[in-house]
Amino acid sequence: MARNGVQFNMWLSEEEKARIQEKANKAGISMSEYIRRCALSRKIPQYGDVAVLREISAELGKIGSNLNQIAHHLNAGGSVYSVYYDLQEVIKDWNDMRFRMLKQVEDVCCGKYHYRRSA
Predict the structure, then answer these.
(1) Which residue, 6, 85, 96, 103, has fewest beta-carbon neighbours within 10 Å?
(2) Domain region containing 40
């Protein structure tokens, strides 16, 4: 929010401040924005477990590395047939990761209890 408004000060205990800061950090917004949203009944972002996304990111890096090795082999004049099974495995890993990632991204972006509406 722009600083063209008025400043509002309040007193909190150290514990209260720490709890509010923790919740604001978890929501990915500033403490001021968190308090503002609570006070004005605005929506607060609800994030799921981002540790799973870090794991997925690492696995995607490995898949990318495998693809780079396959591309390097092919660009060096290697036979497509010699990497055929490796390529099939990379594609399978990628498809598995896509479906696993979709659920986790929905949990992080929309909250753990978000349910997709049926079309």
Answers:
(1) 6
(2) 1-45
Range ranked top by mean pLDDT from 4-8, 46-50, 65-69? 65-69
Structural domain includes residue 115: no
Interaxial angle between packed helices 51-75 and 84-110, expressed in degrees from 0 to 180 and rounded to the nearest 10: 150
Residue-level pLDDT at 119? 41
59 and 105 in a common domain: yes
DSSP state letter for 116: P
The domain tally of the chain equals 2
Per-residue pLDDT reduced to its tens digit, 71-90? 998 899 988 888 888 888 88
CB atoms < 10 A from the CB of 40, how many? Answer: 7
Q: Is residue 117 part of a domain?
A: no
Q: How far apart are CA 113 and CA 107, in angstroms?
A: 7
Same domain membership, residue 56 and residue 25: no
**pLDDT, average across residues 17-22:** 94
The DSSP call for residue 83 is G
Neighbouring C-beta atoms of residue 97, cutoff 10 Å: 15
pTM, to two decimals: 0.46
Q: Are both 19 and 59 inside the same structural domain?
A: no
